[in-house]
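B., you asked whether I could sanity-check this one before it goes into the benchmark set. Here's the sequence:
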Amino acid sequence: MVSVRALRFEADLTLEDLVVLHSIGRPKMNPVLAEPAMGVMMIPIPRAGIYQSHTYTSAYSGDPDCEIIITAKPGQKLIPLPEGASYPGFIFASGPDPLKVEERLRRAHDGIEFEILTALDIVSF
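And here's what the prediction gave me:
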């Protein structure tokens, strides 16, 4: 499974490790990304409403090089962009080249179904 980190480096170094090493004047390192290509998709909100749950369809086969993280909480009001300011989650993928990563991101996105209830605005008179 893909690590939640979009940037991973050989020798188990993280981006944070590299920043700290640089800040303390350690010798210059030439980090190499652990994967040839990596990507992340901010999942767009399909429609306004109250998030209830999500399921995965057969379109998403549980690809080990792709990870879906849903951050929305049940009962949370979802407002699509540009009025909204958040996403229901993120999809991370890695692969041998950018086209394969894009394919994995799109397939995973196509395989998520959200249950979103219509939000009713209460107006007092």
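One thing to flag: The domain at 35-117 is CATH 3.30.470.20 (D-amino Acid Aminotransferase; Chain A, domain 1). Otherwise nothing jumped out at me.
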